[in-house]
Amino acid sequence: MPGHFNPLLVLAEELVARGHRATFIGQPDARQLVPGEGIRFAAVGEASHPPGSLEARIQRMARLNGVFGMRGMIRDVAGLTDMLCREAPDALRRIGADAVVADQMEPAGGLVAEHLRLPFVTTATGLPINREPGVPPPYVPWDYQAGERGDKRNIGGYRVSDWLMRGVGDVIEHHSRRFGLTPRRRTEDCFSPFAELAQAALRIDFPRTELPGSFHYLGPFRPDREAEWSPPPGDDRPIAFCSLGTLQGSRAGIFRKVAEASDRLGLRLVIAHGGRLPAAEIARLPGDPLVYDFVPQRAVLARAAVAVTHAGFNTVLDALSFGVPLVAIPLAFEQPATAARLRYAAVAEIVSKRASARGLADAMEKLLEDGTYRERAGAVRAEIEMAGGVTEAADLAEACLSGFVRREASTTADAGAGGARDDNRNGSS
């Protein structure tokens, strides 16, 4: 999904600029997400995941509804992990990989890296899913509750989550045994022991006590260069930005209510719908919103007074990077959990997807008139500015690689086994 690929593309670009080679490994359709210059792509799974299958999967996710829809999505996830565990090892050997960067949500990355004895780092491009009893699971809308009662509720939630995800667990257990690794069943069992690099900010996560020392809150992975965007000349209305992410851009009813609310409040609304909103629906939007398939999101948010979003993690981070408070309309996946964390940080108003235009207008007006929301969003912005972002992420990835090489060399020397690798190259891959 672009929300996971795009931050990793920025990290890959930073590593390439430092003299490394970067190759994304994925099903053939994912090639379209990787630019042609400087970063490579190696396709796997052409038999089980042929061209066209990614868009079909996205369409199923966009229509996700109820337990049966969730079961279908989990089958898709398990199938992708199984394919990567079967085919990624040979792909990594072909490209001569020296290290692996693996997203938290894909356990195959860690399993394959351990199988090949490669150093690897885990990235949390979305909401961190690190498990601990004091923190609700990352797929439920629960607020933070300290103490024994909250811990019991959370532990029960994790049990239900494990039951729902048992298909993925079966795949993880099968391949961990096949690779000769210690048996495991959970995605979080496949995280790197060397470094976990999270886009999150500490202020928008629940209080934690069990994160490993290798976990780092780094803020969003974004390029130094920023695209430009300006409102029409002579229009000095405060700007409201609305995006519902990659999957939910066809939600015409929500966009209409946001447009009506913005018009009531005298705001200049900017909508980005990812190419999923038909022209006939755009024509029905109240007021005079500026509507785009895609727009330089950060450039708009740099000028915005308020953001209205589905609580997708990248949009949340981009808004808070500029100290912009949010109205969150969580729709699916981890979005209700992200919204709960925004409520805890008091940087957002959370409204139901069934809220009326009047209800949305009330929430937006509250953010505009109560300056404490912008103050708290400004505190998150300050934390993000100090966190290090993609530069620190690349530093930690390089330190992981060099530290692993030193440990391997030491182990080899102690064993009297001579050189550990036969591929001497100037840059790591």
Counting DSSP E segments of at least 2 residues, the number of strands comes to 12
What's the mean pLDDT score?
90
Supply Rg: 22 Å
Shape verdict: globular
Helix fraction, binned, reads 40-55%
Query: Unreliable stretches, pLDDT < 50, 5 or more residues?
Result: 417-427
What is the strand and helix layout of this fold?
Layout: H1 2-17, E1 23-26, E2 40-43, H2 53-62, H3 66-95, E3 100-103, H4 107-115, E4 120-124, H5 148-164, H6 166-178, E5 196-198, E6 215-217, E7 239-243, H7 252-265, E8 268-272, H8 279-283, E9 290-292, H9 297-301, E10 304-309, H10 313-321, E11 326-328, H11 335-345, E12 348-350, H12 357-369, H13 371-387, H14 389-415
Parallel strand pairs: 1-2, 3-4, 4-5, 5-6, 7-8, 7-10, 8-9, 10-11, 11-12
Helix pairs in contact: 1-14, 3-4, 3-6, 7-12
Plain-language structure description:
Helix 7 links the parallel strand 7 (239-243) and strand 8. The chain is globular and about 65 Å long. The chain has 14 helices and twelve strands. It has a six-stranded parallel beta sheet with strand order 9-8-7-10-11-12, sandwiched between helices. It has a four-stranded parallel beta sheet with strand order 3-4-5-6, sandwiched between helices. Strands 1-2 form a two-stranded parallel ribbon. It has 429 residues and is α/β, with parallel strands linked by helices. It has helices at residues 2-17, 53-62, 66-95, 107-115, 148-164, 166-178, 252-265, 279-283, 297-301, 313-321, 335-345, 357-369, 371-387, 389-415, and strands spanning 23-26, 40-43, 100-103, 120-124, 196-198, 215-217, 239-243, 268-272, 290-292, 304-309, 326-328, 348-350. It is 46% helix and 11% strand. The two termini are 23 Å apart.
